[in-house]
Design goal:
The chain is α/β, with parallel strands linked by helices. It is 51% helix and 9% strand. The chain has nine helices and four strands. A four-stranded parallel β-sheet has the order 1-2-3-4, with helices on one face. It is elongated and about 55 Å long. The termini are far apart.
């Protein structure tokens, strides 16, 4: 890992960052040493996911070692934390308790891209953002679909939106039939029409 990173840093003028985990498994959580060595290799920032490679996404993220890396006096580069941030309160705790320079959010954004706005408002004001209305969610889903297709093309952009749709409208009564249609159609016009029917 260090050799690969050193070679990448040497062959580019672009700032190199690394995202990694705490270590291989429970017996080999060596992120404090690894972070120092990656910094010495020339990276400009590091993001640490609070699980080991063997955990995948099981169990809870352990932020204590992320905090150790951030509070290591040898570390001079920004340290970002990742893992299990699903709420504005969780984001605030990551900053206040572990001192990270930033957070990365993954799975909590699925079908909820407004989580970033929720977090920003909470960090700035201490207030919880009002929940989005159903028409607002529909409008956002349309923009999301449009952007997904622009960036990834067809049909991949449509395929990748499917799991988002399930979460955008989770909990709607009598939604099962509409959900199945949204998750099976590849006809973009039909999908937009289905979204119109939701609101």
């Amino acid at each position: 890992m260090i050799n690969i990173t050193e070679n990448i840093v040497k062959t580019t003028n672009i700032p190199v960052t690394v995202k990694t985990r705490l270590g291989w498994d429970e017996e080999n959580k060596n992120i404090v040493e690894v972070a120092e060595r990656l910094q010495d290799a020339g990276i400009k920032a590091i993001t640490i996911h609070g699980r080991t490679k063997m955990q995948l996404f099981k169990g809870s993220a352990d932020w204590t070692l992320i905090g150790e890396v951030k509070n290591n006096p040898r570390m001079k580069i920004p340290v970002f934390g990742n893992g299990d941030i699903t709420s504005p309160e969780g984001a605030k705790e990551a900053f206040e308790k572990y001192g990270v320079d930033g957070i990365m959010i993954g799975r909590a954004t699925i079908g909820r891209p407004w989580i970033f706005k929720e977090i920003r408002e909470f960090l700035d004001t201490g207030d919880i953002m009002e929940p989005l209305t159903l028409p607002e969610k529909v409008d956002l889903a349309k923009v999301h679909l449009k952007k997904s297709i622009e960036i990834k093309g067809e049909p991949r952009g449509v395929y990748e939106m499917r799991r988002h749709f399930s979460y955008y409208f989770k909990g709607l009564p009598e939604f099962k039939e509409m959900r199945i249609k949204l998750l099976t159609s590849l006809d973009i016009r039909e999908i937009y029409n289905l979204l119109d029917l939701i609101s």
